[in-house]
Design goal:
The chain is α+β, with helices and mostly antiparallel strands. Helix content is 18%, strand content 38%. It is globular, with a radius of gyration of 16 Å. Bound molecules: zinc ion.
């Protein structure tokens, strides 16, 4: 499947660019955030300086019976507000990633709706 098609199916309206897709036992999607610089989660100041990048691994909604894993490259930013306790923070991609979660936002919502349906 072409990267643009994967973006349209898995990440509609989400600021990521798919770089690679591997489909063997499960589906591995390598993607990079294209979102604008984030705001500090503590003081809400808009980030201006990038600290580094790193790769997060997120479980996403399955495609049929196949597990989907997203390797998402995100950016760490400096918070430049002198009075802020936080010196760096990692961006979150709205609609895809949340702090401290190993599941995508879509998978979390999907599992929640199944639990409600069963409960
Ligand atoms: Zn801050």
């Amino acid at each position: 499947m072409a990267s643009k098609a994967v973006e349209a199916v898995l990440f509609p309206g989400i600021d990521v660019r798919v770089e690679r897709v591997c489909d063997s036992i499960g589906v591995l999607v390598v993607a990079v955030s294209t979102a604008r610089p984030s705001r500090c989660p503590d003081c809400r100041k808009q980030a201006r300086r990038r600290h580094s990048t790193y790769q997060r691994t997120l479980n996403d909604r399955p495609l049929g019976s196949r597990r989907v894993v997203v390797r998402l490259r995100v950016r760490r930013y400096f918070c430049d507000r002198k009075s802020c306790f936080r010196k760096t923070f990692v961006e979150q991609v709205p609609g895809l990633s949340e702090r401290h979660r190993r599941s995508s936002t879509g998978l979390t919502g999907w599992l929640r709706s199944i639990a409600i349906e069963l409960g």
